[in-house]
Amino acid sequence: MGIVLGIESSCDESAAAVVTSDGNILSNIIFSQIQDHALYGGVVPEIAARAHVDKLDHAIQEAVMQAGINFSDIDAIAVTAGPGLMGGIIVGTTYAKTIASVMRKKFIAINHLEGHALMATLTEKTLIFPYLLLLISGGHSQFVCVLEPGKYKILGQTLDDAPGEAFDKVAKLLGLGYPGGPAVESASHHGNKSAYRLPIPLEKRRDADMSFSGLKTAVLQIVRANGFNNTEDLCASFQETVACALALKVSYAIEKFSEYSINKQFVVSGGVASNLCIRDKLSQAAAKHGFQTFFPPVKLCTDNAAMIAWAGIYKLQMKAHELDFKPRARWSLEEVCYET
Ligand code: KG4
Ligand code: ZN
């Protein structure tokens, strides 16, 4: 059995986790920096990097302690080496390389998106490769054919903002605080989703590409014209439109996916996959094509280190480790390679 320590510091979570090759999450520690960034209504890269320096070593020690193991029991250290905010990535990779060198452990560089992409294979035992993935987070929005660990084909992606980014910007505009997704979702519970007609982005385009920046502008125009008095209705209408825009693209993504596989399994991951309205619309759209939809549990959908450790297990099994890997701020899933 292999044991991997995972480290995640590419955005605003300082996280560490210990996961075994048979799929047991022995610990999953997340120190959120929300308090540090809330004042600014979004993540400030410099503040994030400094907070990782403060918190990441505690997260790592806590993860090893809670797992009930010693550092000597660990086979490899897996760390997010990109894409994301460079300051935080450098902090994480430096910790990981140092532990790996001093303790003579294997060092594994993980693409953050790959962590989100593979997470569901830990929790859903019936999931098989290849499967269709929709990754929706604060920085990304893409339909991916997950052929096997280390082999990914992007089937469609956002042309501008990610959906999480749109949620965060709308929340900031409406004074709902940061992070915006959960705030907009909870305001929506009391709102009327049909109150405002917002345009569904790329409605006429017959492909799996997406766009979310226009929606934010449409919300801004409504606020300018009407003021802030209908925040709950506006949140509900915005959330409904994002859900419809994503659901609309499912059939095009499935069409492309069927060029690679006859499997009918669909995974939705990333922070925005926590949204219940979006979950509902996506699983309904996929069911129309006979696809079964899987969502990792919310704690594993948003950024965490268990997903990095789990992706590390795959790379460990394929002997893909390399101490000289250089962190990458930009790193497409299609550029992931397990050959060392
Ligand atoms: O995956 P994640 O934790 O970090 C990134 O890799 O970006 O996703 C964070 C994003 C944020 O933009 C946040 O507002 C959004 O996910 N989010 C949500 C919800 N929970 C988190 N968006 C919509 N509804 C939610 N319930
Ligand atoms: Zn993420």
Task: Give a structural overview.
The chain is an alpha/beta fold. The protein contains eleven helices and ten strands. A five-stranded mixed sheet has the order 3-2-1-4-5, sandwiched between helices. Strands 8-7-6-9-10 form a five-stranded mixed sheet, with helices on both faces. The longest helix is centred in the last third of the chain and has 27 residues, at 231-257. The protein starts with a strand and ends in a 23-residue tail after the last helix. The mean pLDDT is 96. The structure holds 5'-O-[(R)-(carboxyoxy)(hydroxy)phosphoryl]adenosine (KG4) and zinc ion. 5'-O-[(R)-(carboxyoxy)(hydroxy)phosphoryl]adenosine binds at residues 11, 137-139, 164-165, 167-168, 179-182, 185, 270-272, 274-275, 302-303.
List the helices and strands and how they pair.
Blueprint: E1 3-8, E2 13-20, E3 25-32, H1 34-38, H2 45-67, E4 76-82, H3 86-103, E5 106-111, H4 112-123, E6 131-136, E7 141-148, E8 151-157, H5 163-173, H6 180-188, H7 213-226, H8 231-257, E9 265-269, H9 276-287, E10 292-294, H10 298-301, H11 306-317
Parallel strand pairs: 1-4, 4-5, 6-9, 9-10
Antiparallel strand pairs: 1-2, 2-3, 6-7, 7-8
Helix pairs in contact: 2-3, 4-11, 5-6, 5-7, 6-8, 8-9
The structure holds 5'-O-[(R)-(carboxyoxy)(hydroxy)phosphoryl]adenosine and zinc ion (ZN).
